[in-house]
Amino acid sequence: KAETIEAVEEAKKAAEDAANAFKTKADKVAEVIDKINALPEKENVKAADKDAIKAARAAYEALSDELKAQVPADTLKKLTDAEEALEDILPKQPTVYLRSHVENIGWQTTTSTLEPGASFAIGTTGQALRMEALDIVVPNDYKITGFAHVENLGDTDVVKLDNPDYDVPEGYTAYRFGTTGRALRVEALEIHMVNADGKPVEGFEYATHVQNIGWQGFVQNGSFTGTRGQALRMEAVRFAYAEADAADTQQ
To answer: 0.85 exceeded by the pTM?
Structure first.
């Protein structure tokens, strides 16, 4: 009898565990559906809805494939519609590629990638090495202008590389600041990134690491950073895409 009672209790517990597991799964799906249903319709999406849309997407992606299949198709479409509407509202920030030419190193072997919402540094710090050149590689429908302030040369315009000696992604163009093979330090930069309409790319910013100073603060697209007339080498540059400010976009 004791064995029978024990078996019954074990079966009861197993059934309760299964029921709880089913309830937990159902709750997870319901939570995702609620997050998506709380989003505005696509025609009413505003920049201020960005966090809610991202949270809904993250919650959906956290589901297992089994649970994703339980989210109704029309609910999922509401999420994708909201994402597409948000993309149309927010400023476009293209993926760009970055390279640096450094004293005693030459071209650094790693090509850094700057993507929307991210930041990346090129060059070196703590090694007292001058940066001599840097390349910015952007989609063909974007353009880079500006200049580098170079030792002995002063302000030198950025150069579009018609035949770069490295592989550039298809649909991209490379631009170079500074010089190579002349052992000349870059001391400052002014970089303008514009889109196909000639408008500055919003959120694009950069900061320089300068001899005896360290990291300077970020400056906005088209601004000057570094030094002039102090014979100080620039050692590294950090590029970033700042989050789009809802105040600067459609409300």
So the answer is: no
